[in-house]
Amino acid sequence: MKRIILLLFLFSFVAAFSQSILKGKITSKDNMPLEGVNIYFDGTTISTISDVNGNFTIKYEPNANNILAISFMGYQTEYLTSLDASKPLNIALTVSKNELKEVVISTNELFTREQKLKLFREYFLGKTNNAKSSVIKNESDLRFKYDKEKLVFTASSDKPLIIMNESLGYKIDFELVVFEVAFNKLSINSKDVIKNFYGGVSRFEDINNSVAVLERREKTYQGSQIQFFRNFAKKDWGIKKFLLLNDDNSIDALKRFKIIEEDDFVKVEVLPQPKAEIQNENLKDIVASYNIAFNRTEESKITFQTDSFYIYKYGNNSNIESILFSGKISEKKVGDMLPLNYGIK
């Protein structure tokens, strides 16, 4: 089963406050203000930079429960959760350690860099039309490693990947935290992949808001993970939306999940699925596994390895590492990523 995780970090609980503006100041460890620091909420278009005195203000959605990232060249990126908008943030950044990465040149490499780049693009950007229009501007910063014993291919980068998505009109800065592709034999071909996994934090910038681009964004949103979890939280299921299925038989989702609405999030309890319905799976690790269909045509599968999780305002959720997708939804990778705050006013 291919694992698709757009975000690596788990979301922790954030208390709600009436303020909608978060204020703070960025300094170095010796208390010197830092100008031009990037401050953004992970996976969104909500961002700002610090002024000459290191001060900043940024729109804050307490019930969205996502990560605040503080990034500045030459300093270690900071990631903050559990924010309290009633108090100003004072953040002192630490200078990055300039460690030289060892470059190993091997004369018996089985695969070329171009083959590795092709694999990375396929499992990071995807293969959809949106993905094909996406370009990583700094591919030279990528480093690859292939563990021939474990049959695992990994990628890393010391610098954020700069992605220009012309189809959806976004520039994305993606700090790659982890990227792995596992094979069933010594291979670089996608037909031999048994699972893949990537994660990181991202910042979106609008670069094109033309009518055609807006239409493509909405088309991409339809049937996406964001829409799925937003509908899930609202108990909004239907033939022209998402259907929960056992094989090809429609199931009443309200009898398979308990939805508990709180002030700032929704708690979902996954009710145990009859074991007779779960086929070809490791029952020990699975609470429930269902087919899902969007608009009757786009078929996917969702597997829950957790008996409860939370859904927040943007459709982001906790326990994302324990909710696995395959099928149509999993085909949408970074090339089809929309900001978490897409469509939220």
TrEMBL record:
It comes from the Bacteria. Pfam families: CarbopepD_reg_2. InterPro entries: CarboxyPept-like_regulatory. This is Surface protein with CnaB domain. The lineage of its organism: Bacteria, Pseudomonadati, Bacteroidota, Flavobacteriia, Flavobacteriales.
